């Protein structure tokens, strides 16, 4: 009897596995799968892996944890931000890149972060998931073809391969990209106030507004609104950056055939360096001299802010930057307005002085007495007819009139 029960159990187990295998094969046939029939072991392993992945995804959704949209080595497009720009913005355009690392979010409400490797060889950057999207393959541009279907080249040769696509480095300035007119668009509108050239008075007003806000607290929407010329905040910020470069670094172009290097001195150590490159927002790339120092090795190139260096002329003297004077509003012709009356300081009393409580006081209005003790805001006054002193506010007391 025991052997019969064991044999029946084995038969039921084999029958169940066979039925499951035939059921999956039937579902694959109904779905139109072009794959060849697989063995029961391969099918069971693949179904187990897919079920496990499905269970992980459902569990993550139930727990409210965000699921990463991209995985390792995915081809994506992402927005670019220059790490050397202090307070810079993300670019409007997307650039091709590859995901090299996936970082989980710190909280449930924040998205994933991805370490992006740019196709143009720029430095790897950490980008939020909101600024990353799947890479959309671009259709190749139609090239002129000969009768045999091959593309003709300028040198007379012919080839069937598509032309190589030029890729440039992402812009470090960011901002809104220029709009290009298409064939279906209407004629471009007339130039607005934003495209008008900047006047010296407008540049001086912009410099005054930036000085009022102070470095580090710039609000370009507020500055553009206070400027009152109808220019966008992006145009105001870009023009001020160009003004900053022109003001800090004198553009002395040497004559042809004469090489002139701009020398400067580091204020902290007094070390002499040579200007190599001017960057955005007052950053410079300098090459140190051949002396040893805490600033760096001899001949080393490093970045430094313009505020920490002093430019030198050909004779080695300091170049003092000229700062524009603050524009003062001109008064209208006519009589000058009368100055506002100065607020009189109340008379100070001493202990023993006779005072009177104002009628507008909360209590004891109109009564008189003598000062017993003086405090910061409340004074002790012994009113006439009372045995004990009373606390009264200093601003409610006035000198008593002598009969």
UniProtKB/TrEMBL annotation:
Residues 197-248 form the HTH myb-type domain. This is Myb-like domain-containing protein. InterPro entries: Homeodomain-like_sf (IPR009057), Myb_dom (IPR017930), SANT/Myb (IPR001005). CDD domains: SANT, Tudor_SF. Residues 177-186 have a biased composition (Low complexity). SUPFAM superfamilies: Homeodomain-like. It comes from Pelagomonas calceolata. Residues 31-60, 137-217, 315-371, 383-403 are annotated as: Disordered. SMART domains: SANT.
């Amino acid at each position: 009897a025991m052997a019969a029960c064991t044999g029946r159990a084995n038969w039921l187990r084999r029958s169940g596995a066979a039925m499951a295998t035939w059921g999956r094969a039937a579902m694959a046939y109904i779905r139109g799968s072009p794959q060849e029939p697989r063995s029961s072991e391969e099918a069971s392993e693949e179904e187990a892996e897919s079920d496990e992945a499905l269970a992980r995804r459902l569990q993550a959704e139930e727990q409210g944890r965000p699921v990463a949209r991209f995985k390792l080595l995915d081809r994506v497009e992402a927005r670019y931000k220059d790490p050397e720009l202090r307070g810079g913005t993300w670019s409007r355009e997307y650039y091709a890149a590859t995901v090299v690392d996936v970082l989980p979010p710190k909280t449930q409400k924040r998205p994933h972060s991805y370490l992006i490797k740019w196709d143009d060889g720029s430095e790897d950057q950490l980008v939020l998931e909101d600024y990353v999207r799947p890479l959309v393959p671009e259709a190749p541009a139609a090239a002129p073809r000969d009768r045999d279907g091959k593309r003709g080249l300028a040198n007379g040769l012919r080839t069937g391969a598509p032309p190589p696509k030029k890729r440039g480095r992402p812009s470090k300035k960011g901002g809104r990209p220029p709009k290009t007119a298409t064939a279906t668009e209407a004629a471009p509108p007339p130039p607005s106030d934003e495209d008008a050239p900047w006047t010296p008075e407008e540049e001086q007003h912009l410099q005054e507004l930036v000085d009022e806000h102070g470095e580090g607290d710039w609000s370009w929407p507020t500055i553009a609104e206070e400027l009152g010329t109808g220019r966008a905040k992006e145009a105001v910020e870009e023009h001020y950056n160009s003004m900053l470069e022109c003001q800090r670094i004198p553009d002395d172009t040497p004559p042809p055939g004469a090489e002139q290097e701009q020398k400067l001195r580091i204020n902290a150590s007094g070390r002499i360096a040579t200007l190599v490159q001017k960057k955005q927002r007052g950053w410079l790339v300098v090459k140190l001299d051949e002396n040893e120092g805490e600033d760096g090795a001899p001949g080393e190139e490093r970045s430094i802010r313009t505020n920490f260096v002093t430019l030198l002329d050909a004779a080695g003297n300091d170049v003092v930057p000229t700062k524009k004077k603050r524009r003062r509003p001109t008064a209208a012709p006519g009589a000058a307005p009368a100055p506002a009356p100065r607020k009189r300081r109340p008379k100070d009393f001493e202990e023993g002085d006779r005072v009177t409580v104002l009628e507008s006081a909360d209590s004891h209005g109109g009564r008189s007495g003598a000062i017993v003790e003086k405090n910061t805001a409340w004074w002790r006054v012994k009113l006439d007819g009372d045995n004990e002193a009373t606390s009264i506010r200093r601003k409610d007391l006035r000198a008593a009139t002598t009969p």
